[in-house]
Specification:
The chain is an alpha/beta fold and 282 residues long. It has one domain: pyruvate-formate lyase- activating enzyme (Alpha-Beta Horseshoe). Helices cover 34% and strands 17% of the residues. The strands form 2 sheets. A 7-stranded parallel beta sheet has the order 8-7-6-5-4-1-9. Helix 2 packs parallel to helix 3 and helix 5 packs parallel to helix 7. The chain is globular and about 50 Å long. The model has no long low-confidence stretch (mean pLDDT 92).
């Protein structure tokens, strides 16, 4: 079984102590996102084939990564680094810190461990097509030698995400298919020139690049040096992810990314986390 931690929240940034406690206990209770009824997920080393960690900031998670490595379990860090303006990504750490952290993880565990995520590609008056070309190039320059893959996608917003953007006064548009294909071709060439392969997350209608496998059993097997078998079981049409169990919870991240599908009300989450004295990411 592969554990996803988590596309519902940023566990590395905000919930590292919780994860370490679950790892020590060998199990974790997870609320079903629809019924809210809890179920147990087995985290004993013999039950886990590997981990996929999703984050905007893995700096507070160093002890947890070391603990997973000590159990001889492979892991991949899906590291989102976008460099968006604060009007869009309100509380994300500076991109230079994220890049530095990604480099440090790769230096210790190998560059197969780090997958750079440049998604979602959001087109706004501040972040247009030309802005993305220039911004991606700067980030790719900085991450060359740190990772061998960048996963990209265009924003496909849920209703609550569109509401949050509108609430923040941000207008956005969906690019035309030809615009998408042209931009992906340019970003793919830029990445390839730096030894980074570009893949597309869950956009089956856009054949400008190979489809991503964000929960990637083959990558985990390469890292582990042993076979890992997992059925392909995506979350939506076009998703090629391997079957996994996600252990996160919605509405538990305070990064404030206005396009995020995992948070319905950013201000409410901030108030709740302050009230429960959840530690801030650094």
């Amino acid at each position: 079984m592969i554990i996803s931690a988590s596309y519902r929240s940023d566990i590395p940034a905000f919930h590292g102590d919780w994860f370490l406690a679950a790892l020590a206990a060998g199990e974790v209770a997870v609320a079903n996102p629809y019924s809210q009824r809890p179920y147990l997920v087995d985290l004993r080393p013999e039950a886990v084939d590997g981990y996929v960690f999703w984050t905007r900031n893995a700096r507070p998670f160093a002890r947890a990564l070391a603990a997973v490595a000590a159990q001889a379990r492979p892991f991949v860090v899906q590291y989102t680094i976008l460099g968006y303006p604060r009007t869009i990504d309100a509380n994300v750490i500076d991109q230079r810190l994220a890049i530095e952290n990604a480099r440090a993880i790769a230096a210790v565990y190998g560059k197969r461990v780090v997958v750079w995520r440049y998604d979602p590609i959001l087109l706004t008056p501040e972040t247009g097509i030309d802005w993305h070309r220039a911004n991606f190039t700067c980030l790719a320059d900085a991450l060359a030698g740190t990772t061998d893959e960048v996963v990209v996608s265009f924003a496909q917003l849920y209703a609550k995400s569109a509401r949050n953007l509108a609430k923040a006064g941000i207008t956005w548009r969906a690019p035309e298919p030809a615009e998408q294909a042209a931009l992906i071709a340019d970003l793919g060439m830029t990445a390839a020139e730096r030894g980074i392969a570009l893949s597309l997350c869950t956009q089956p209608d856009l054949a400008a690049a190979p489809a991503a496998r964000c929960v990637d059993a083959a990558r985990l097997a390469d890292i582990a040096g042993r076979p890992i078998a997992a059925a392909t079981k995506g979350n939506r049409p076009g998703c090629l992810c391997a079957q996994s169990r996600d252990i996160g919870g919605y509405d538990s991240c305070v990064h404030g990314c206005r396009y995020c599908y995992a948070v319905a009300d950013h201000e409410a989450v901030q108030r709740r986390m302050r009230a429960t004295r959840q530690p801030a990411a650094v």
